[in-house]
Design brief:
The protein is an all-alpha fold and 464 residues long. The protein has a single domain, classed as Up-down Bundle (Amino acid/polyamine transporter I). It is 78% helix and 0% strand. The chain is built from 19 helices and no strands. The chain binds tryptophan. Tryptophan binds next to α1, α2, α5, α10 and α14. The site of tryptophan (TRP) has 16 residues, from α1, α2, α5, α10 and α14.
């Protein structure tokens, strides 16, 4: 069908992949992980992971997608055929699609919370509330399935409405509006935080002072997992977007831009959030509640300015989440459309409806199923799905892609595709893909299976 369709503009691959990368991972997860993992130490390790692992893997997924111009499964099939490699590698793409189906199902629930917060900042209901009251507000939202089902449904509907219109008309056009808006809004909040709170130095110190004693093996492992999640790697999302890439666009250059923009946005999110948190005498180490309780309380305490900041901030979160959620729907829809020739419109809405329904498993885990123990794992459905995707499927997907591109795929494909890279950097890239990336991801993988305690113990015995 549309397998020769390309982005209308040269810059769209960068725009789309950056849109996929920047999301809740940057605005919600990164800041609280900085808070939980020792500030500057985590930031430094994160930057190393992005450069050493994120960038080369981003290039690899792009190579496969751009070479084949088709959906992720066919992209692997086509490169495997030319390389005389096993067609079983297609399983990587299938697994990726299953994983993003699950990730999207709860990603949308969390994005729904941002919709709810935007609404309640607009109505003024949150303004003036104390920490305890905001906490109660959040708990009430979590305890209310109906309210969440509505917002989760609205978010999935918005996602479907964009994807149904196609790659150029839907994805490309909507991102052309959303991404500039995203940058402007975040810069506005950073500007406010820098100029009005008087806590910029403290934030800078907090985020960038490197205390090496805080770099534990677990910090490294968390940073690596976060780098994969934030850059949307390992799930064939980048591969799918790369299939629409124009021939004359350089993979190396694009990957550098995407990686840099995503990282800058995560750092900016920290620079926007922490000064406001500090200025209101609150702690940065609140974990997942950093946005929905800590930061929201700060906004609530700041009168009209806080109301405007609250609306702006949560609106920003919605745009960022939407530009990511569409990237999680496109791989399946593209494959289904090309494979069975069905209408894009019907495929998209049916798929999104199924994702929405599956999301109810997670949604109900915040209330009526909170204490359900699935198959004796000690986890409720949401915790289990989150664990399986973030801690197992994501690193496993990354591992398979690095083994495929590093070892199984014919390296002349990569050499052709990375035409702008000189011999030295090409060899460096290949060595990183073959040896460094698999070993490091293997470690992340082991640690998530064994758990934090056992893993730390093992690493300590090796180091001693
Ligand atoms: N990267 C996005 C974020 O930071 C989330 C995301 C989009 C994602 N597509 C993905 C994560 C694919 C893993 C895999 O919020």
């Amino acid at each position: 069908m549309n397998d020769k369709l390309v982005w209308a503009k040269k810059s769209t691959f960068i725009l789309a992949a950056t849109g996929s990368a920047i999301g809740l991972g940057n605005l919600w997860k990164f800041p609280y992980m900085v808070g939980e993992n020792g500030g500057g130490a985590f930031v430094l390790v994160y930057l190393v992971c992005v450069l050493l692992i994120g960038l080369p893997v981003m290039m690899s997924e792009t190579i496969v997608g751009k070479y084949s111009h088709g959906n992720a499964i066919d992209a692997i099939a086509k490169t495997a055929k030319r390389s005389n490699a096993s067609q079983l590698w297609k399983g990587t793409a299938v697994m990726g699609m299953v994983a993003i189906f699950v990730i999207l199902s709860f990603y949308s629930v969390i994005a729904g919370w941002a919709l709810d917060y935007t609404y309640h900042f607009v109505t003024g209901e949150l303004t003036g509330k104390s920490v305890d009251e905001v906490k109660r507000f959040f708990d009430t939202l979590l305890a209310d399935p109906k309210r969440q089902i509505l917002w989760h449904g609205l978010f999935m509907f918005l996602t479907a409405a964009i994807i149904a219109r196609g790659a150029q008309e839907g994805i490309e056009k909507s991102l052309g509006i959303m991404m500039p808006l995203l940058f402007v809004l975040l810069l506005a909040i950073v500007g406010y935080s820098m100029l009005a709170t008087g806590r910029f130095n403290e934030t800078f110190e907090y985020m960038f002072s490197m205390d090496f004693s805080k770099v534990t093996p677990m910090v490294v492992i968390n940073a690596m997992g976060q780098a994969f999640f934030s850059l949307s790697l390992g799930m064939c999302v980048i591969m799918t977007y790369a299939a629409y890439m124009r021939k004359d666009v350089s993979i190396t250059e694009s990957s550098l831009y995407i990686t840099a923009l995503d990282t800058v946005m995560a750092l900016l999110a920290g620079l926007a959030i922490f000064p406001i948190v500090f200025a209101n005498d609150m702690s940065a180490g609140a974990g997942p509640g950093l946005l929905f309780v800590t930061l929201s309380t700060a906004f609530a305490q700041m009168g009209t300015v806080g109301m405007i900041l609250g609306i702006t901030f949560f609106f920003l979160v919605i745009i960022a989440a939407l530009s990511s959620s569409i990237s999680m729907v496109e791989p399946f829809v593209k494959w289904f459309e090309e494979r069975f020739g069905l209408s894009r419109f019907a495929t998209t809405f049916t798929y999104c409806l199924v994702v929405w329904a599956f999301g109810l498993l997670s949604l109900l885990s915040f209330n009526i199923w909170a204490d359900v123990d699935v198959l004796g794992t000690g986890k409720n459905p949401f915790d289990l799905l989150d664990f399986i995707t973030s801690s197992i499927l994501l690193p496993l997907g990354g591992l398979l892609i690095s083994l495929y591109v590093g070892w199984a795929m014919d390296k002349t494909i990569s050499r052709e595709q990375l035409f702008s890279l000189n011999g030295f950097f090409f060899t460096l890239w290949l060595v990183i893909m073959r040896f460094i990336v698999p070993v490091l991801i293997g470690l992340v993988f082991l640690s998530s299976i064994l758990g934090e305690e056992k893993m730390t113990a093992i690493i300590n015995t090796i180091i001693d």
